[in-house]
Specification:
The chain has 213 residues and is mainly alpha-helical. Helices cover 78% and strands 0% of the residues.
């Protein structure tokens, strides 16, 4: 391995450590209590080194969220390709992708929801806001294309694919929001039960034909 390649790998690893550290501080103390100093401490870096990579905590969180959302697009793309060669229970398969995405990193999921709140995203610098918007558009497009394919295959009711995508996705988001609120108040979680019931309702209302995975 050449010197330049090793330096680039070390730089990428350090960026990853910073992003992970920011999410750890966010989980423990919340957004407002998170500081560059605390992120540097958890990442075991000096503040001077941290500022070589990122200028603000919002920049750090934005890139952590972008990485997380890129994984969602990967899951959606894989499912869309899977539909070409396999018979599936369409809504169950899509719903399980949502759950897999959420459970892969609930903290990053929470941070993403927080950063997409109206007041929060309006207060971001334009360059960060545009990055989040562009990534969100890619994921929305992928989800709509999946709904279009589901309609063509006769697996889901022939409605506007954009409306279908939004209804199904926001049904899942509603459950996540509620569970986060309950957790904050120390109440018992019913995430699995709620997800199962929501999927059952969606299948009864939207599925045209289901097949075993």
């Amino acid at each position: 391995m050449g010197i330049q390649e090793r330096k680039q790998r070390e730089k990428s690893e350090r960026r990853r450590l910073i992003l992970d550290a920011a999410l750890k501080v966010y989980e423990a103390e919340g957004y407002h209590a998170t500081t560059m100093e605390k992120i540097a401490e958890v990442a075991e870096l000096s503040r001077a080194t941290l500022y070589l990579y990122f200028k603000t905590k919002d920049e750090i969180f934005t890139y952590a969220i972008l990485n997380f959302l890129a994984y969602f697009e990967e899951l959606l793309d894989n499912f869309r390709a899977y539909l070409d060669t396999h018979s599936v229970d369409f809504l169950r398969g899509l719903w399980e992708i949502f759950i897999k995405f959420y459970e892969s990193d609930p903290v990053a999921f929470s941070a993403s929801l927080y950063f997409h709140q109206g007041e929060m995203i309006r207060n971001l610098p334009p360059e960060l806001r545009n990055l989040l918007a562009a990534r969100g558009s890619l994921n929305y497009k992928a989800l709509c294309e999946i709904m279009e394919k589901g309609i063509r295959l006769g697996l889901v009711t022939p409605e506007d694919p954009r409306a279908l995508a939004e209804v199904i996705w926001t049904a899942f988001l509603g459950i996540v929001h509620l569970e986060h609120s309950k957790k904050a108040m120390g109440r018992k979680s019913h995430f699995e039960q709620s997800c199962a019931l929501a999927l059952k309702g969606l299948q009864q209302g939207l599925a045209r034909r289901t097949k075993d995975l």
